[in-house]
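User: Teach me something about this protein's shape.
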Amino acid sequence: MHSGRRFTLKQVVFWTRRDLYFFIIISLIPTSLYYFFDIKWLVIPWVAIALIGTAAAFLVGFKNTQTYNRLWEARQIWGAIINTSRAWGILTKDMVKSDKEEIRTLYYRHIAWLTALRYQMREPRVWENMHLKSNVEFRSLYNVPEHETKIEAELEKFLNPDELAYILRKKNRATQIISLQSSHLSRLKDDGKLSEFDFIELEQTLVTLYDHQGKSERIKNFPYPRQFATINQMFVRLFIAMLPFGILQEFGKMSASIGEAFIWATVPCSVIVGWVFHVMERIGEATENPFEGGANDVPISSISRTIEIDLRDMLDEKNLPSPLTPTNDILM
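Assistant: First, the predicted structure itself:
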């Protein structure tokens, strides 16, 4: 998540510079043929290009609206995880009639659940975009905690060795950690350390956490429909490729009175217009997967750290971890 006022023009150009090089090339080729070889039939009526541009603009607008909805829903889910986690903390502390160490186990196991879930959300999917060279280069400006530390090293802070070994054997580790929580609550109830009513209340909280996890997994595992993403990208690329041929016609008319060299204004004009459409399309692409490790992600690492600090503070611990801070205005 970008936590500054805005992306700078330098950052946006750095992110899209490879595409700018391509736009310059596809603008230079028809302009050179027109100017040096006098091939005038290259021009395309502007009306045809405008119609394609209008269709591309509608699709880009639709995609950006839908991908923003995915991003905002993901943020709402993790906002709900914050609230439910705090509720888990106060309910456990007030309802479980046991020593502080057992309550601490329930707290730490919940932090382990958050850790497992955020690592699962960062796992790559074939439809995600972080493998693109522009995104790989831009990622050098910030850090993704889940890509720097192995999950084993993080989970061992919050689980005992037996539980850690058990969880690491599982495919969906977050799901199994909640299962361990439920089993622990059942034992507490059988031992008389948790009343029947309180047991039901805490179990319902675990069900709510499962609900949050499932919603998060749905966004992670179901991409923005590929048919819309494909057609959107094809229309934008077609428009950008045809753009110089339409601008040639307009500037060709103007060069008759201004001078033949004016035809070269086709290149910067085509590059700027094409870049605007391309950036709008890339914005939607960069927003559609809110957990992939991109600069526009929901900051699940920071959210998890905030919850960890809150829960450990409820235990009156002194050596609390520091909140995550942005790197180059990017907060993960």
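Now, about its shape. Residues 9-314 form one domain. The longest helix spans residues 46-95. If you'd like, I can walk through any region in more detail.
User: That's plenty for now, thanks!
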